[in-house]
Write a structure and sequence with these properties.
Helix content of chain B: 10-25%
CATH architecture of chain A: Sandwich
Strand content of chain A: 35-45%
Radius of gyration of chain B: 34 Å
Shape of chain A: elongated
Strand order of the largest sheet of chain B: 1-3-10-5-8
Number of strands of chain B: 12
CATH class of one domain in chain B: Mainly Beta
Distance between the termini of chain B: 79 Å
Oligomer: heterodimer
Distance between the termini of chain A: 82 Å
Structural class of chain B: alpha+beta
CATH topology of chain A: Jelly Rolls
Order of helices and strands of chain A: HEEEEEEEEEEEEE
Number of helices of chain A: 1
Number of domains of chain A: 1
Radius of gyration of chain A: 37 Å
Largest interface: A-B, 58 and 81 residues
CATH class of chain A: Mainly Beta
Helix content of chain A: 10-25%
Number of strands of chain A: 13
Chain lengths: ~190, ~220
């Protein structure tokens, strides 16, 4: 067959197709739907505590280092632990580690005492609340049950609790960790 | 001369033959169309009935807060916490509907949206939807009727496509009383000196965009 009749057949087929499409189109299967949308933001809580000097802005990620320059007398140093999270804390875990004295000898043990319900008077060395021993450098990490409200702080005193045989400079490093179990219990809120 | 023109005539015949089917189709189409609109001399009679009113149905899905609904964000959520919000979804159009679905488009912190990898896989926010046959009391979370879980706890990332809440028919006027429960799965993290862990769940933010949908009932053929 030459190309002309083939072209004619093609045109005929196209015309027939168009005619069929125009006359006999099946109805499309379509359905309407309805939607309603609303958004709600969600934000998770934080639980953390930071040790630092009294009155200073807490710096996250750093332990509190206490420098001792003993001269044969018992002195106390004060610091605070600030709840920098968004949850109230029911406890924290403390560790206090002494460095070696500069002469290589073991320094005296240091005890950390919290003043519950008040703050330490750094001049008089008194606490109007309740004094609770939190941890000593002779211990491994201790979990305390001292409560600190979100944004609040706990007043602490560090003091040698054994006699300094060798009054040489050394440091005590205080770290505070908080686990989820040391926050409020999970809640169910209906609003 | 004749012999000289013979090939030319043959070519002309071929051309005519080629266009014959086209011509036949055109005439046929003209007849089909023409008979539809053609004017024939004849007697005409018409009968006029009462005008028939036709109105189309409407399909509407409306959402009303029962309590604060979605108007109040979820803040300070800790692992293990559950926050319940209450909404009433009404099929308020005139048409029956079917296939009530929910889809949650979540943006923001991936930790709240997508579960972690082993061993801490259950990390992201989960949504559970429970229906009550009567109203929920939004401040107590009490359903005075019968409850049924229409969406089991699903990570937010699992709701990026529509999930079925009610597969069957939803008659016009029906109100679904829903409790939308958002939970941050229990998981433990320890913060040392205020330094959050690397893949922390703490202090994260996300926006959950809820989209509820329904489709019209199956179309019908009515004889009456």
């Amino acid at each position: 067959m030459s190309s002309r009749p083939r072209l004619a057949l093609r045109i005929t087929a196209v015309l027939a197709g168009l005619l069929a499409a125009a006359l006999g189109t099946a109805p499309a299967s379509a359905a309407i739907d309805a939607r309603i949308a609303q958004s709600a933001p969600a934000q998770s809580a934080t639980w953390s505590a930071v040790p630092g000097p009294v009155g200073a802005t807490p710096i996250a990620g750093q332990p509190h280092v206490i420098n001792w320059n003993l001269s044969g007398i018992l002195v106390a140093q004060y610091f605070q632990v600030t709840n920098t999270g968004s949850l109230d804390l029911t406890g924290q875990t403390y560790s206090a580690v002494n460095s070696k004295a500069t002469n290589g000898n073991a320094p005296p043990a240091i005890g950390l005492d919290a003043c519950i319900g008040a703050t330490w008077n750094t001049v008089l060395g008194t606490c109007a609340g309740t004094v609770v021993r939190i941890v000593a450098t002779t211990q491994s990490a201790i979990a305390s049950t001292t409560a600190i409200r979100a944004g609040g702080s706990l007043s602490l005193r560090a003091m040698p609790i054994t006699l300094p045989n060798f009054p040489q400079p050394y440091t005590t490093t205080v770290s505070v960790s908080v686990s989820l179990s040391q926050t409020r219990t999970a809640t169910i809120t209906n609003t | 001369m004749t012999a000289h023109h013979a090939p030319h005539h043959t070519e002309n015949r071929r051309r005519r033959a080629a266009w014959r089917p086209v011509a036949v189709a055109a005439v046929g189409a003209a007849l089909v169309v023409g008979t539809g609109f053609g004017v024939w001399a004849s007697l005409n009679a018409t009968a006029t009935g009462t005008a028939e009113t036709v109105s189309s149905g409407t399909l509407k899905l409306t959402l009303a807060a029962n309590g604060v609904g979605f108007s109040q964000g979820i803040t300070n959520v800790a692992p293990g916490d559950i926050v319940n919000r209450y909404v009433d979804l009404a099929n308020s159009g005139t048409l029956d509907a079917q296939s009530l679905t929910v889809q949650v488009g979540a943006t923001g912190s991936g930790a709240l949206i997508t579960d972690g990898v082993a061993p801490a896989t259950t990390k992201a926010l989960r949504v559970t939807i429970t229906s009550c046959t009567t109203n929920w009391a939004p401040t107590t979370g009490i359903c005075s009727g019968t409850t049924s879980i229409v969406l089991a706890a699903t990570p937010v990332s699992g709701l990026s496509t529509a999930a079925s809440l009610i597969a069957g028919a939803i008659p016009a006027g029906t109100v679904a009383h829903l409790q939308v429960s958002t939970q941050l799965p229990d998981q433990t993290e320890t913060t040392v000196n205020g330094n959050l862990p690397a893949t922390t769940i703490q202090g994260q933010s996300a926006v959950l965009a809820y989209t509820f949908g329904e489709v019209q009932r199956t179309s019908t053929t009515t004889n009456s």
